[in-house]
Design goal:
The protein has eleven helices and no strands. It is mainly alpha-helical. It has one domain. α2 packs antiparallel against α9, α5 packs parallel to α11 and α7 runs antiparallel to α9. The longest helix has 32 residues. The radius of gyration is 19 Å and the shape is globular. The protein starts with a helix and ends with a helix. The relative contact order is 0.17. The model has no long low-confidence stretch (mean pLDDT 89).
């Protein structure tokens, strides 16, 4: 149980570090002077000292929504597959529960954007709803497909089963699911080509448009939620699609897991540097590919057994 809570704490602590690493690596690849890898912690402490300004047009939702955005994601952290063999994990939570909690967080974020009564907030919330409607079914199908290949619908147990017995006989289905989930990782975390987390242009904003009116502690909470969300998706990808290292000794297993997280972050940065952001109405084509690959994974598993 101690290792279980320690793993969750370490994931929470590494979340800002991971986003700072991605931004710094991106600047290096663009031949710019990189930021410090600890910049995420500095930004968090700076925002806590800033004054929280609330628009006169906002309602009580503005005060509660930031906490409601972060809370479901913190609950999901307790449902992730274990980092260490023999560690406690929640074995009965399936794809529907995890997707539902992430969607609940997104719902309150959209509500936050709408409550600001600004044109940008409503625009961002509308775009987020448009993207989320395509992401959620694909995510359920993908995680469900991987759980079937692992022999257990529980995500935690599926991660353990995959580490103990890799489904080589279902490699085709497994690859289809991996491609689908990686596209969803980019979409749900607002990364290029779906969204640009560094832009403030009204024609391209999605996530940033919903939080333009936030400041101080509330903005710190939302930024924390963004980093936690990325760690959740990266952890799920590492546990379900890179299932090795679990059998090692506890410190080494944790080290291997965090190396996998930074590797996933590096791949995301490499993609962002080499491709451009899609137009909004081209995004369904990309997410449609994720849905198609998720269906292909299920069909290949059931029909061909491959």
């Amino acid at each position: 149980m101690i290792v279980y809570f320690l793993s969750i704490l370490l994931l929470l602590l590494v979340a800002p570090l991971l986003l700072s690493y991605m931004k710094g690596m991106k600047m290096v690849l663009l031949l710019k002077r990189p930021i410090s890898i600890f910049q995420g912690y500095r930004n968090f402490s700076k925002l806590l000292r800033k004054e929280t300004v609330i628009s006169e047009e906002s309602s009580a939702i503005m005060h509660y929504a930031p906490f409601l955005v972060l809370s479901p994601l913190l609950v999901v952290m307790f449902f992730l597959p274990p980092l260490v063999k023999g560690s406690y994990y929640v074995s009965f939570v399936d794809a529907f529960t995890i997707t539902g909690l992430i969607s609940l967080s997104t719902f309150f974020l959209m509500l936050l954007g709408l409550d600001s009564a600004s044109a940008f907030g409503g625009m961002g919330s509308s775009r987020e709803a448009f993207i989320s409607a395509l992401v959620e079914p694909a995510m359920v199908l993908t995680v469900f497909s991987v759980s079937l290949m692992a022999g257990d619908l529980g995500v935690g147990q599926a991660g353990v089963n995959l580490a103990e017995h890799f489904p080589k006989e279902h490699m085709a289905s497994y690859l289809f699911a991996g491609i689908s989930f990686f596209i969803l990782l980019l979409a749900e975390n607002g990364r290029i080509p779906v969204d640009n987390p560094e832009t403030h242009l009204e024609l391209t904003m999605v996530h940033e448009a919903m939080i333009l009116d936030l400041s101080g502690v509330y903005l710190a909470i939302i930024e924390t939620a963004s980093s936690v969300k990325f760690v959740i998706f990266a952890s799920l990808f590492a546990a379900l699609f890179m299932p090795y290292g679990l059998e090692l000794m506890a410190p080494l297993a944790m080290l291997v897991f965090f190396i996998k997280l930074f590797f996933i972050a590096s791949v995301v940065v490499f993609i962002e540097v080499n491709i451009a952001k899609l137009r909004l109405f081209k995004i369904p084509n990309l997410l449609g590919i994720a849905i198609v690959f998720a269906f292909l994974s299920l069909i290949t598993f059931y029909v061909l057994g491959a």
